[in-house]
Specification:
The structure is a single chain. By secondary structure, the protein is of the alpha/beta class. The chain has a single domain, classed as TIM Barrel, CATH 3.20.20.220. It has 11 helices and 10 strands. The strands form 2 sheets. The chain has an 8-stranded parallel β-barrel with strand order 1-2-5-6-7-8-9-10, surrounded by 6 helices. A two-stranded antiparallel ribbon has the order 3-4. α10 packs parallel to α11. The radius of gyration is 20 Å and the shape is globular. The two termini are 22 Å apart. It binds flavin-adenine dinucleotide.
Length: 317
């Protein structure tokens, strides 16, 4: 079922969803299941599965380093299929521009269509670890809007090169990313919102936001988006702080601000167990306020371990 249909069915009550990361290759999918199991009691209508950029690995061959390009966390679509089958829940693969040609994207979308996956999240992807800026893949899309257009074309029965005439169109519901504190490369929030509007005009059905720790940023973002004519649902993304390193890492990687009260609370903690609890408490407060404001879904970035998400969900749902 489409995300938009889930929202319609919910009739204004706030839904619970979360996002998982494929395991590093060579690890068992059971680890994922062990972290999903405790969250199923909160009835997520859908679960997102991220896609990781490819990366360089260096293999020591008799003292000489051999540089190889590989994807350390493959399997997004397979994981979507296995979770959908095991839990009878909708799953949403994240589809990236980075690392994929348009042809490869088409094959992936055809797989999704055959698997009965009704939603896809269209994203540009970040720069690879060794790149300072995002470099488009040869034969791929430069921006997420290109992906949205490709998916929308498939929905209209138009495959690449227009070689196929079809009477069996896909009908993907398309999610895209939004940034309450603007995307790190955008010159201003207003410009970034214009780009978001372009994605929606091209066919995106809903937006999921980057994490934020101050709800005022989300509320202002939604207000500005509405003023700009973006009418689709805007789902807030919530991440509980879990380790001290997040204080530096999150602002550095995502260019987001952390509220001083949250920083102070983390700094007084004696160990990561206490910090994890601060993260849970903060996310509960955020979630309760967002829920009271009537957000359609609270979407949690689970990053592997789900004990903290369970504690939050128990307090909020
Ligand atoms: P875009 O919408 O293409 O925007 C990227 C930048 O380009 C923005 O600054 C925008 O303002 C600008 N821009 C857009 N269009 C144009 C244009 N036509 N001309 C000039 N500038 C333009 N990353 C992953 O690698 N895997 C994931 O699974 C993943 N999941 C995510 C889930 C969510 C909910 C979010 C919020 C992010 C996720 N990301 C993921 C991170 C995302 O890939 C990065 O933030 C990436 O840098 C931007 O992706 P985007 O889809 O927002 O890009």
């Amino acid at each position: 079922m489409k995300v938009t249909d889930h929202l319609e069915k919910a009739q204004g009550s706030t839904l619970f969803s979360f996002e998982i990361i494929p395991p590093v290759k060579g690890r068992s999918i059971q680890e994922l299941y062990d972290n999903i199991d405790p969250l199923m009691e909160f009835n997520p209508p859908f679960i997102d599965v991220t896609t990781s950029r490819e990366e360089y690995v260096y293999i020591d061959r008799d003292g000489l380093l051999d540089k190889k390009l590989t994807r350390m966390r493959p399997g997004t679509v397979g994981i979507c299929a296995s979770i959908k089958h095991k839990y009878n829940v909708d799953t949403i693969p994240h589809v990236l521009c980075g690392g994929f040609t348009k042809e490869e994207t088409e094959y992936l979308l055809v797989d999704c269509h055959y698997l009965g996956i009704d939603n896809v999240m269209a994203l540009r992807g970040d720069a690879m670890r060794e790149e300072q800026y995002f470099e488009p893949t040869k034969g791929g899309h430069d921006y997420a809007i290109g992906l949205v257009e490709q998916i929308q074309n498939l929905n209209n029965g138009t495959y690449l090169h227009e070689v196929i005439e079809t009477d069996n169109c896909a009908d993907f519901c398309i999610g895209v990313a939004g940034y309450p504190e603007k995307h790190l490369e955008a010159p201003s929030l207003k410009t970034d919102l214009k780009r978001l509007k372009e994605k929606v005009d091209a066919g995106a059905d809903y937006v999921v936001t980057q994490m934020f720790f101050d709800n005022a940023k989300y509320f202002q973002f939604v207000e500005q988006a509405r003023e700009m004519g973006i009418t689709v649902p805007i789902i807030p993304g919530i991440k509980p702080i879990a380790v001290r390193r997040h204080l530096q890492l999150l602002p550095q990687v995502f260019r987001i601000d952390l509220p001083q009260d949250l920083i102070d609370a983390v700094e007084t903690c004696k160990n990561n167990k206490e910090i994890r609890q601060v993260g849970i408490d903060w996310a509960i407060e955020q979630s309760l306020e967002l829920k009271a404001a009537g957000v359609p879904v609270l979407h949690y970035y689970s990053m592997g371990k789900s004990d903290n998400i369970k504690a939050i969900a128990r307090a909020v749902f």
